[in-house]
Amino acid sequence: TGHSTTAQMMFPKHKQGLPWTMTVNGFSVLLIFIWGFCDCQPMRRIEECGLTCSQGFHCKRKDNYSFFNELCQDPPASLSTSVLQAMKISTVMKCARKRQCSLYLNVKGVVNFDGNIHGVEICALSLDASWPQCKSVRLTRSKQNKSKDQKQVEIQNNCFEVSAGQLVHVTLKTIPNYCGVKLEQQYYVEDCRNGDVGKNIPICVAGKLDYKMDKVKKAISIHLSDFLEDQDYHVRLCHKWFSCEDIGAHGLIKAEDPSKSISLQYSQLLPCLCIEGWSALPDSRRTQLCPFQNNTEVLWDSVTYDPITHVLAWKPSCPMQATVSLCWQTESHDQCVNLPDSSRTDHGKIEYGHLDINPRLCMKFTTQHGSWIRCPFANGLFSGWTMKLETRAEQMQVVITSQTKATFSVAVCNKTLLLLCEPLQKLPSLHVVSVCWLSQKLLHHSLAGNGGRMQ
């Protein structure tokens, strides 16, 4: 069932219950508390909505709402303080066919009928409506009911159409409208999480998605089942952050399509890559399938280096809580030692400035599932400068090219061992782009350019 606050009688005493009111700086504030839970009980079905009264009374309904209905008059002294005894609200369902149902409020009121009132008015106002739905009920005794002692009458009206998940304010007032004589409740209509509502209200039927991967074509084949058969169906790929952000892969499965399948291209299997689907009905519930959540290793590949600003950066492609630090890889490559004061835990882009390129300088990423190391300079992927040797007319040309303004120290050395080069001659400093001509007598040596640090 839906969730309601306790009815309160606005005459002249106040019954405790929800909604509660509190006073702040002289203003009354209404506090509404809503409890959410899974209600798996089947909802009561009705064939048609209608109005009923307890035996011994006739009731006649009139749908109306006018501003003048809000005007009230002082109650007579003979009016019983318990003329409106109780009000109970529930939700009922009316179905045209399978998965084509509507929701209605079923409002029951208990009234002590006397000569001061002619009937009651029941109104339901939702937060997204401009005007309330109001039903006036005129009460008369049946001819068989000659007993003046029977005053209590139960009135039931289930013709207030509502939507799943609506918050509705319901009031029960007398006719004539006596000031301060009314019952009122806040009622929360079951939403799509309710088992019965989720299966039968059109905007709640989200469908079921299944998928198959084709990693060669970088495509996801999506199949739809358990859906509204007379409606088109939207499918898209998205990256799930606070909401699911569109990445351009979108398709429409037509209602007349017998395969109920579609194929969408992807660029990268990120852990936040999701498949989202929904019916073409306005405000339809959406369903999501996020099958790649464990594929986190791909996130650590998005390391960038700007040779102009000397900034090493990592920006997560998906929401990920990770600790990032710089580390220095040992010669044996068996461990990477954290550099002091380099740890970062920001959720956004992480940057390290004023860095010199070194093949052993790495980034370490640590999450609750483990650690990963990426060494962006190991393969020269982010080289800030290059050196090239060319032989021309018995001379050797050294060409150094840099992406930034820099000065280089260049020396000629004799490479005698794998890691040893004996200095032979130091050349003048070179500037971008510089060419150094070496004389013929140096060509018999094993030559190597010894490029110094950029300054």
Structure summary, number of beta strands = 32
The overall pLDDT average reads: 81
pLDDT < 50 stretches:
7-38, 433-455
Could you estimate the helical fraction of the residues in percent? under 10%
Structural class: mainly beta
**Overall spatial form:** elongated
In terms of DSSP E residues, the strand content is over 45%
Major β-sheet annotation = 7 strands, antiparallel
Give the distance, in angstroms, between the N- and C-terminal Cα atoms: 74 Å
SS summary, helix count: 1
Q: Report the C-alpha radius of gyration, rounded.
A: 39 Å
Labels describing this entry:
455 residues, mainly beta, seven-stranded antiparallel sheet, disordered C terminus
Describe this structure as you would to a colleague.
Strands 1, 2, 6, 9, 10, 12 and 13 form a 7-stranded antiparallel beta sheet that branches. A 4-stranded antiparallel beta sheet has the order 5-11-8-7, with no helix packed on it. The C terminus is likely disordered. A hairpin with a 2-residue loop joins strand 7 and strand 8. It has 455 residues and is mainly β.
